[in-house]
Amino acid sequence: MSKLNLKITTAESEVFSGEVDSITLPASEGEITVLPSHVKIISSISPGELRLKIDNEEQFLSISGGFVQVNNDLAIILADSAERDSEIDIERAEEALKRAKERLDNSESEVDLLRSIQSMRRATIRVKIGKKRNSNRRRNQ
Asked: Do residues 33 and 15 both lie within one domain?
């Protein structure tokens, strides 16, 4: 089966570079799956879960937004931030979620409210992906 070359980059680092069978990502128009020989696209990415299928295994990443470009069998994701499930500290993510909820309750301006909602969404995604990794780890034991 043919593969798709994928590069995931943030301003700080290259998060992933390698061959994948498919990529499922939260595009601005809804969730899309990219397969080898996919039609050319450029799309913005919404905060959410990024799933990579490599052979018969899935890897999960938390992504906070960015852009994806697919051309031939090359996909490039330029992400605001991206974190592999193995790098997510669930306790830290849960604390960030708690702080975001507190800020949401105490928001005094529309800007504060929007920032709190964005923080809460990012933290929720990180907690979800971190817990998914732990449940997959238990299932494989």
From this structure: yes
Distance of CA 140 to the CA centre of its chain: 23
User: pLDDT (tens digit, 9 = 90+) per residue, 91-110?
Assistant: 888 898 898 888 888 888 88
CB 35 within 8 A of CB 52: no
Tokens for 32?
């899309």
Q: What is the pairing mode between strands 74-79 and 4-9?
A: parallel
Print burial letters for 56-91: b (CB count within 10 Å at least 16), e (below 16). eeeebbbbbbbebebeeeebebbbebbbbbeebeee
CATH code: domain of residue 62? 2.60.15.10
Strands 4-9 and 66-71: unpaired
